[in-house]
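As a point of orientation, let us examine one representative protein, giving the amino acid sequence and backbone structure tokens.
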Amino acid sequence: MTTLLGIDIGTTATKSVVFDVGSGIIGGASRPTDLRSLHAGWAEEDPEQWWRNVVAVAGEAVVETPIDAIGVSGMVPCVVLVDERGRVLRHSIQQNDSRAVVEIAELRERFNGTDIVGRTGSPITQQSVAPTLLWIQRNEPAVWDRVRWIMGSYDYITYRLTGIPTIERNWALESGLYDLGTGEWAWDIVEAAHLDPRYLPPVNDPSTIVGTVSTAAAAETGLRAGTPVVAGAADHVASAFSAGAIEPGDLVVKLGGAGDILLTTDRPVVDHRLYLDFHLVPGRYLPNGCMAASGSFIRWFQRELAGSEPLEQLDQEAAASQPGASGIVALPYFLGEKTPINDPDARGAFIGLHLGHRRGDLFRAVLESVAYGFKHHLEVFTELGFEPGRIRLTDGGSKSRVWAQIISDVLERPVEPVRFTGGSAFGVAFAAAIGTGALDDWQAISGLFELAEPVEPQPDERYEESYRIYRQLYPALKEVLA
């Protein structure tokens, strides 16, 4: 029996999955994570809290069974700064943080006329690491002077487990510092960020064993010293894989704190409106989009406008509203927006309100706004010549039948909610099985997850009208909200 531990460093929680190669998922645990936003557009978390959570979930895992290998996934490409002694120098700057507005503009101007998208797979946006590093240098020079390593969320946990600095290839690619053509760091962009290349650890593939659990980490977690640890993967990449997105044309809509939409292809696809990731399966790719606020928009509404009412109650109220949210249209740009508009200064809005509206109409407008964002991305894929096959919904939001129906209706396609996959944690546990030789076929993921009843679309012209307004809102409000 070979048992793998997968850990996911998520925006709202640290989760684990215990995967037995012979019998499937046999356990798991979760601990909450706090997101801090001290100023408009800021998003930070405490890596030490991630580690405390890892200690807790790993401790629960080893009570169930001995662990033979470990993989870690997480948010990408958030920035963690570590000093010479391995200490975190400041809270992480999350991938949906939009503070580096000036630095983004400067780098765009510097590389104007350069095919940045073709070289790195993505434009210079709020998700790019170079502007974030420049912001730190200018605003927190005392922190920058002590930097020894720059890494991502899951790379940091892998480092804490093994003591060996590493970067997984998708953090490298999504950072905007990596040249897709050469397979090396893009040295001119690194130089423009005033970045010492020695701060960047070696880049590894997800299933590559990068080290073993150290004696110190074993003492804290209860894991066996010497247990292999693989490089891991970006959370959305691992989650898409664990939902069975393997064949070209497979599309996954990930309803987490952010909203991801990922299409499996057999060749790299670069476009300024999209990101590009490597698939877990060698030789395949995941062109994708990311909406900065999806589940986090819903949680904000629940907390600030609904008195922390249970989401099940809010779903019922939304279901009692009408398609088109009785005339309300929302913009979900509450953390700026990533793809497809790439504007860190974008802001959220509700329009069309009158005194006859109820809370359920507002909440339905929130759900519909995220669905409209996915439709916008789907139109980009179609324009680039890709027609998705099956569409699967994953993560916490996929449990809402109301939201799943809205997404199906807006996209005008059937969708398959994934009842349980183990998510990103399961994806990297599987990568650990591949890396250690416990499994030798990526296709074995098929059949290891459970699908809920498919949702068939019920198109409604009111969605079409609301979507038309949705697409007009951002350019109409951009100057007003600038």
